[in-house]
């Protein structure tokens, strides 16, 4: 399983005017890597992340910080998850450009999706960028 990529849901948000990037993830199953989209694992990660964000709204006002690309799901190598993603996140949190973070994330990602929800429809994954 060490060679399997990692699936990460992340959000670009602002809490009372300060940047935050909550994220959650899990190792991919070998058969999931072959699938067209992240399926049930992606839906579960998106739901977990959204519930965490929603719960935090009791304490502070929260808004999206990157428009439609504020909620992403990316498939990245485990090494990138543990080594490069924390550095990119720290740079963005300290005021780095969102577009620079997104460009660097796209280079790391094996696959990436924007998480989308439309009224009366299930969560969907739109290829990103």
Give descriptors for this structure.
129 residues, three-stranded antiparallel beta sheet, 8 strands, 28% strand, globular
List the helices and strands and how they pair.
Elements: E1 6-11, E2 13-15, E3 18-20, E4 23-27, H1 30-34, H2 39-56, E5 62-64, E6 71-76, H3 78-93, H4 98-108, E7 111-116, E8 124-127
Antiparallel strand pairs: 1-4, 1-6, 2-3, 2-5, 6-7, 7-8
Helix pairs in contact: 3-4
Please explain how this structure is put together.
This protein has 129 residues and is α+β, with helices and mostly antiparallel strands. The protein has one domain. 39% of the residues lie in helices and 28% in strands. It is built from 4 helices and 8 strands. It has helices at residues 30-34, 39-56, 78-93, 98-108, and strands at residues 6-11, 13-15, 18-20, 23-27, 62-64, 71-76, 111-116, 124-127. The strands form 2 sheets. A 5-stranded antiparallel β-sheet has the order 4-1-6-7-8, with helices on both faces. Strand 2 and strand 3 (18-20) form a beta hairpin. Helix 3 (78-93) runs antiparallel to helix 4. The chain is globular and about 40 Å long. The mean pLDDT is 91.
């Amino acid at each position: 399983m060490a060679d399997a990529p990692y699936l990460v849901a992340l959000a670009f948000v602002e809490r009372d005017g300060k940047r935050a990037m909550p994220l959650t993830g899990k190792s991919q199953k070998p058969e999931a890597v072959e699938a067209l989209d992240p399926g049930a694992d992606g839906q579960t990660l998106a739901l977990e992340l959204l519930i965490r964000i929603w719960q935090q709204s009791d304490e502070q006002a929260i808004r999206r910080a990157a428009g439609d690309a504020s909620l992403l799901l990316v498939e990245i190598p485990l090494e990138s998850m543990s080594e490069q993603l924390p550095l990119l996140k720290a740079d963005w949190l300290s005021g780095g450009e969102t577009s620079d973070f997104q460009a660097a994330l796209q280079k790391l990602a094996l696959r990436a999706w924007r998480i989308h929800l439309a009224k009366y429809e299930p969560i969907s994954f739109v290829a990103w960028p």
